[in-house]
Design brief:
By secondary structure, the protein is of the alpha/beta class. The protein contains 12 helices and 13 strands. Strand 6 (177-181), helix 7 and strand 7 (203-207) form a beta-alpha-beta unit.
Length: 339
């Protein structure tokens, strides 16, 4: 197998700001795997500095990952992901790009969509939320207005004016479902103080209220909170799930965190075993990266797959989330083409 890559710089329609900061430009890496017959599969690495990755680290690690799977039958998807993990720790975004490309390749060789290869029904996907990043009141009102077609909004908090943000969103969208993501920006006591505000504004659930390492704090909050708690930064791979049992109500999977589609499927199975809710989220990504994650949608309770909808220069056409409805294409592989 030959692995090639290209760095793409994505520009968001508006500066995208969360509790840890923001930007208008997000470099991603388009990865292509080509087999000996000239067939190719595509994947995308959407690196996050929070997890120690950049586009440069992805490019730097690709040769090592390619060497680790050299000579392995490309149909051996489980073994390939295992060898990628043995080759180097972490680097989830880089590994997930290779995983997506190999799944794309396998389904293309069978001439079926990946969701069909997995035996899934794409009509069972939940609606995706649309994210409203941190900003001032004027920014928030404009973003909510531009998201008019989406019935579910995910509101980024973790700022010094969270109550104002939430009040502004609710006034601008009185009938929409609201979800909140604090991106690890609160303390346990502040999280509990915020619960009254969240309930008053009809929030459905809270994602990652506390720092990733504070599992005891998450348990403290969950035992007292009137809303479900979803772990994101605290849950990177399936190995994290047992320690989160009883501390949260559900998990948020991201391919760039967990390192591949096989691992994402394991996370879903592990969470279900423990009676936990399952969500899949994303980074700022193209339709290529979003489409890979969207193939998991029929297995989810919640979806937050709006990364490409926030991008002004998406170079691909793939799954759509127009109006929040996740629509996978009936095309071989991931079903992604160049725009």
């Amino acid at each position: 197998m030959k692995i090639s890559h290209e760095i793409l710089t994505l520009r968001t329609t508006h500066p995208f700001t969360i509790a840890r900061g923001g930007s208008s430009e997000f470099p991603v890496v388009w990865v292509r795997v080509t087999d000996s017959d000239g067939n190719d599969g595509w994947g995308e690495a959407s690196p996050s500095k929070f997890y120690g990755e950049t586009a440069e680290t992805v490019v730097a690690v690709l040769p090592r990952l390619a060497a680790a799977i050299d000579g392995i039958n490309p149909w051996s998807l489980e073994e390939i992901e295992h060898q990628l993990d043995l080759a180097i720790r972490f680097n989830g975004a880089a590994k997930s790009a290779i995983s997506a490309a190999l799944h794309d390749l396998a389904a293309k060789r069978l001439n079926v969509p990946l969701w069909k290869m997995w035996g899934l029904d794409p009509t069972r996907a939940p609606r995706s939320s649309f994210t409203i990043g941190i900003g001032d009141a004027a920014d928030i009102k404009r973003k909510v207005a531009e998201a008019a077609e989406y019935p579910i909004l995910k509101v980024k908090l973790g700022s010094d004016h969270d109550e104002e943000i939430l009040r502004t969103v609710r006034e601008a969208a009185p009938d929409k479902v609201l979800r909140v993501d604090a991106n690890a920006g609160w303390t346990p006591k502040h999280a509990l103080r915020m619960m009254e505000v969240l309930v008053r504004h009809g929030v459905e659930f809270v994602e990652q209220p506390l720092p990733a390492h504070d599992i005891a704090g998450l348990r403290f909050v969950r035992e007292r909170a009137p809303l479900p708690i979803i772990a994101d930064e605290s849950c990177v791979t399936s190995a994290d799930i047992p320690r989160l049992v009883g501390a949260v109500d559900g998990i948020n999977i991201k391919l760039a965190k967990c390192g591949g589609l096989r691992e994402a499927l394991r996370m879903i199975a592990a969470a279900r075993t423990h009676g936990m809710l399952v969500m899949c989220g994303c980074m700022i990504e193209t339709s290529l990266g979003i489409t890979a994650a969207a193939h998991l949608a029929p297995l989810l309770d919640y979806a937050d797959l709006d990364g490409a909808a926030l991008v002004a220069n998406d170079p691909f056409i793939g799954a759509s989330i127009a109006g929040g409805r996740i629509a996978l294409r009936d095309a071989p592989g991931l079903g992604v083409t160049k725009a």
